[in-house]
Amino acid sequence: MQRTFLSAKLHRVTTTAVELDYEGSCEIDGVLLDAVGLGAFEQIQIYNINNGNRFTTYTIRGKDNSGVISINGAAAHKVNVGDVLIIAAYGIYTEKELENYVPRLCYVNDQNVLTKISVNISL
C-alpha cells in the first residue's frame, strides 16, 4: 500500500509580491527552496492564513537570500502582499519508506529569513 504524507513545509512565510500578468507559479527564495528540499517546478499546496484560501501551484526558484515569496498568475487573486502563508508539499510513500520517514519543516522570521529546520511540529 502507498500512503500520502507531508514531505516539506515552509511555515508562516510572508507574501512579498503578487503578479497577475505572469505565468502561473510561486517564486520562492532559493535558500528556502533548498532548506525545505523542494525543486524548481515541484507541485506545492499553499494555505493562506489570512483569508483561508487554499490552492495548488508549482515552484519557481527565486534569487538566494531575497526573501521573495511571489504568487503569480491566476493564484494572485487568492493572496495579497503581506499575507502569511503555509507552503506544503506531499509525497507518496510505501510502508517500507515510512519506516525512515521524516518531513522537512522550515520556519522563518517576518522577513522570510530561515530561522529553524525541524522534523517535528513546533507548538
UniProtKB/TrEMBL annotation:
Residues modified to Pyruvic acid (Ser): 25
Which cofactors does it use? pyruvate
Residues the entry annotates as binding substrate: 57, 73-75
Q: Where in the cell is it found?
A: Cytoplasm
Q: What are the protein's UniProt keywords?
A: Autocatalytic cleavage, Cytoplasm, Decarboxylase, Lyase, Pantothenate biosynthesis, Pyruvate, Schiff base, Zymogen
List, in alphabetical order, the Gene Ontology terms for molecular function in this entry.
aspartate 1-decarboxylase activity
Q: Is the rRNA-binding keyword given for this protein?
A: no
Alphabetical list of SUPFAM superfamilies matching this protein? ADC-like
> Assembly and partners?
Heterooctamer of four alpha and four beta subunits.
Modified how:
Is synthesized initially as an inactive proenzyme, which is activated by self-cleavage at a specific serine bond to produce a beta-subunit with a hydroxyl group at its C-terminus and an alpha-subunit with a pyruvoyl group at its N-terminus.
Catalyzed reaction equations:
L-aspartate + H(+) = beta-alanine + CO2
Cofactor binding note: Binds 1 pyruvoyl group covalently per subunit.
| Organism annotation | Candidatus Ruthia endofausta
EC class: lyase
Summary of the function given for this chain in its UniProt record: Catalyzes the pyruvoyl-dependent decarboxylation of aspartate to produce beta-alanine.
GO BP annotation list: alanine biosynthetic process; pantothenate biosynthetic process
**Its domain of life?**
Bacteria
Q: In which pathway does it act?
A: Cofactor biosynthesis; (R)-pantothenate biosynthesis; beta-alanine from L-aspartate: step 1/1
What family classification does the UniProt entry report for this protein?
Belongs to the PanD family.
Question: What's this protein's name?
Answer: Aspartate 1-decarboxylase
The active site is formed by 25, 58
Q: Main localisation, per the record?
A: cytoplasm
Assigned EC number: 4.1.1.11
* GO CC terms, sorted: cytosol
What NCBIfam families is this protein classified in? panD
